[in-house]
Amino acid sequence: MKRRWLASAAILGLALAVPAAGQPSARTTYLDKVINGKHMSETTARAAAQLAEFEQKKEPHCLQAASELLETIDLAKEADAMKRLTLRRETLETWLALLALIDRNLDPNFNPQDLPSTGVAPPRVGDVSYPPGVDPSVIADPQARQRYEEALKQNTRKAENYRIQTWLKRFDESISPKAERFVRMSYTTVPGDQREVAETVKKLIKNPQRASALTRAAAQKQ
Amino acid sequence: MSGTDSNSSNPLGGANPTGSPGGATRKCTKCTITSQTAVSSPPDRARTTIGVGEEVNLTCSNSSVAWSVTGDAVLSGGGASATLQAGSTAGAVTVTATGPTCTCSIAFTVIAPSDPFMEPKPGADLKHHHGRPDCGYFGKFYLPPDTVSFKNLEVREKNSKCVADGFYKNFNNLTHQPAGQTESAWFTMNDCVAGKGTLANLDDTIYSGAPGGAGPPFEAGTETFPIVWEYRVRGGAATALKQFEHKAVVDAAGKCTMTKDGASASRVPDDPKGEPWPD
């Protein structure tokens, strides 16, 4: 009974607290399930693996690779009707997981005008100023050296964050229409199709504008 | 730009290039590929000369086609439209759309960046301490030519070691980045600027530094860092760009001239302090 409840809850996309003996509770979300769970389709499994790699390394090009894999899926080529429905659902879930990761990592306060620098000029000590980027060990004054080390770390963090945010913004602009196109082209207006899209959007998409765009795409037909 | 229809260029001739031998002759439907670069700068979006890593949106007049590509590039999408992204190597790329009755293709020439250059950041003050023989500025980094976009590239600067003499002799063998570091972080690229090239999303901190010592007169000296930048496409392998120099020269009067790949600026000790540079 308990096992059945857990399975149902996972399907409903609830965040679960699964205590393991001697371990702290682990939270499993529907997004985690899509990214790390089993897939019938090898292609969606590979795309999900790219999403998992993004989560681990924060390497934005993993999202691009996942998108390109999903674009290769041709539902019409799956002759078995039941497998085709499963493939469609898995593809939808993986597209939406990709969009959810973009939303989760995009910083709404990111300012593209605040450019990162290649290096940091060390603080001047007396009448000695070193060129930018030198090794901190050359700075004799410990306080100045500490300030410089901290500035170097901040500069690296800023450069890395700028890079990630720039790619996320670009991928959001290029990938979102592709995901919406998949929804529009793969789901009919029959209630069962509309329900599958609506429920999957509800489980995975927290951004209301994005959720609205996806459900609109499902209702629009060319 | 529109690609060619194999109906007119098929070396086998005839009106049915994909028809089966001995089968019923099917009239070949005309097929055309239209291309548009993903970015709007440079403004000619129908061009077929593109930069490494650049994206082009393709549309085929026949909606039922299979897309294929030869050359270093990635092709995604399906149906009537596809997206081409050039790889990291220069050369020829050909995209082909194959339909039930016709095949059409479009050819691209992919070019790599030529020699990078820098210029002082417009509107930014020069770095200088009043009374000292030092100078510097923020540099903007460009990848020419301006006929294509390199917006999808990433660039970074390799670490290097200073060769210095005279006034700067204490800086000899200093590194351009912390000693354990081999290169900077990766930086993204921005839009293509007419007459220049694709601009990098970074401010390069360029500064001579100044070892202690009173003057004038100062001992004349030179400080040189050999600089190598690299680029990559889609997180792939790094490719080195042409090496250039970060060079500071000071004369006996304390006039400091700082040059980095085409960008140059000078200050004399009596010049006012550069703001808003911190000490």
How would you describe what is shown here?
The complex is a heterodimer of chains A (222) and B (279). With 222 residues, chain A is mainly α. In chain A, 63% of the residues lie in helices and 3% in strands. Chain B folds into two domains: 4-111, Immunoglobulin-like (Sandwich), CATH 2.60.40; 117-267, no CATH class. Chain B has one helix at residues 6-9; strands spanning 4-5, 33-37, 49-51, 55-60, 66-70, 73-78, 81-86, 91-98, 103-111, 117-120, 136-143, 153-157, 163-166, 187-193, 197-200, 204-207, 221-227, 229-233, 239-240, 244-250, 256-260, 263-267. Chain B starts with a strand and ends in a 12-residue tail after the last strand. In chain B, 41% of the residues are buried. The A-B interface holds A 59, 61, 64, 67-68, 71-72, 74, 112, 115-121, 123-124, 126-138, 152, 156, 159-160, 162-163, 166-167, 174, 178 and B 38, 74, 76-78, 127, 129, 132, 134, 136, 138, 154, 157, 162, 171, 174-179, 184-188, 201-213, 223, 225, 234-235, 248, 277-279.
What's this model, at a glance?
The complex is a heterodimer of chains A (222) and B (279). Chain A has helices at 2-11, 30-36, 42-57, 61-71, 81-105, 142-186, 191-204, 208-219; strands spanning 16-18, 26-28.
Describe the structure using short key phrases.
heterodimer, A: 222 residues, mainly alpha, two-stranded antiparallel sheet, disordered N terminus, B: 279 residues, mainly beta, Immunoglobulin-like, 2 domains, eight-stranded antiparallel sheet, five-stranded mixed sheet, 1 helix, 22 strands, elongated
Stretches of chain B where pLDDT is under 50 for at least 5 consecutive residues are: 6-26
What share of residues are in beta strands of chain B?
35-45%
Lateral strand order in the biggest sheet of chain A: 1-2
Strand content bin of chain A:
under 5%
User: How many domains, in number, for the residues of chain B?
Assistant: 2
Taking the sheet with the most strands of chain A, its summary is:
2 strands, antiparallel
